[in-house]
Amino acid sequence: MSETDRAATERLTAAASSTDPAVGLRAVRALRELAERLEAVQVRHARNLGWTWQEIAVQLGVTRQAVHKKFGAGRGLFGKEK
């Protein structure tokens, strides 16, 4: 992790525990958006390595249907699925 990333993480962590609800809630939103992007990157990586929707679902603690609905064909996130 770079110094820039580390500093951004520390600022976000501090903001998330702020006593000002506006600051805290903005930090929660930023964390949620980051988690969504990270999830998409990792699902794409797993699919590129040949993982099944079921294998991905198990790791995420959700159903195969939920993962496929969120990231599968027709969503436009990864282009056409095989």
Count the E strands: 0
Uncertain runs are none
**Strand and helix order:** HHHH
- What separation lies between the terminal Cα atoms? 34 Å
Q: How many domain regions?
A: 1
Summarize the structure.
The protein is mainly α and 82 residues long. Helix content is 71%, strand content 0%.
Q: Which key phrases capture this entry?
A:
82 residues; mainly alpha; single chain; elongated; Helix-turn-helix domain-containing protein
Protein described:
This is Helix-turn-helix domain-containing protein. There is one protein chain. The protein starts with a helix and ends in an 11-residue tail after the last helix. The protein is 71% helix and 0% strand. It has four helices and no strands. The protein has one domain.
